[in-house]
Design a protein that fits this description.
- The chain is 13% helix and 49% strand.
- It has 2 helices and 11 strands.
- Strand 7 and strand 8 form a beta hairpin.
Length: 158
């Protein structure tokens, strides 16, 4: 476990990238009350091909600015029970992918669920947060603002 002085500060909402999925600047809600992270998906299904099971799904809604019409396919996935925000137990598929914040890459698990009624398509829970972050709920986009400030300083030095 990293010491608090070594942890990165994040706010209640952050812009993140999902490089494996070729998605950038997605709004993610930081939720210290949630254990797992989740992402909004639809058309979630499993298919068998050549004896191997694959998970297929579409990310985000067609109205979302980062929406892509492509179907994402994962060979490595699992299914687990998750208690939703309304207290009900759901069976959800889980994938692992890379998440970029502060210019650093973190492996993160996401459960796939319908978040169309939620303000943010992504939720980052404690399992992600404990990889080295401190949350300041009074702030937002801390990582993006620090990255832009860092780039500005580098440009000024040239």
């Amino acid at each position: 476990m990293a010491k608090s002085k070594d942890k990165l500060l994040i706010g209640r909402k952050e812009d993140i990238n999902l490089p494996d999925l070729k998605l950038k600047e997605l709004d993610a809600k930081i939720d210290t009350g949630a254990y797992t992270s989740s992402m909004h998906c639809h058309h979630i299904e499993t298919v068998k091909k050549g004896g191997t099971e694959f998970l297929k799904f579409k990310l985000l809604d067609p109205e979302h600015p980062s929406y892509q019409t492509r179907t994402f396919v994962f060979r490595n996935f699992k299914k687990k029970k998750v208690r939703s925000s309304n207290g009900e137990v759901e069976h959800r598929y889980v994938i692992e992918t890379k998440l970029e914040i502060y210019g650093k890459i973190f492996k993160t698990e996401f459960t796939l669920t319908d978040r169309s009624d939620m303000k943010y398509p992504l939720l980052l829970g404690r399992k992600f947060i404990k990889q080295g972050f401190i949350v300041d709920v009074c702030r937002y986009n801390v990582a993006a603002k620090k990255q832009k400030f860092k780039v500005q300083i580098l440009k000024e030095k040239k």
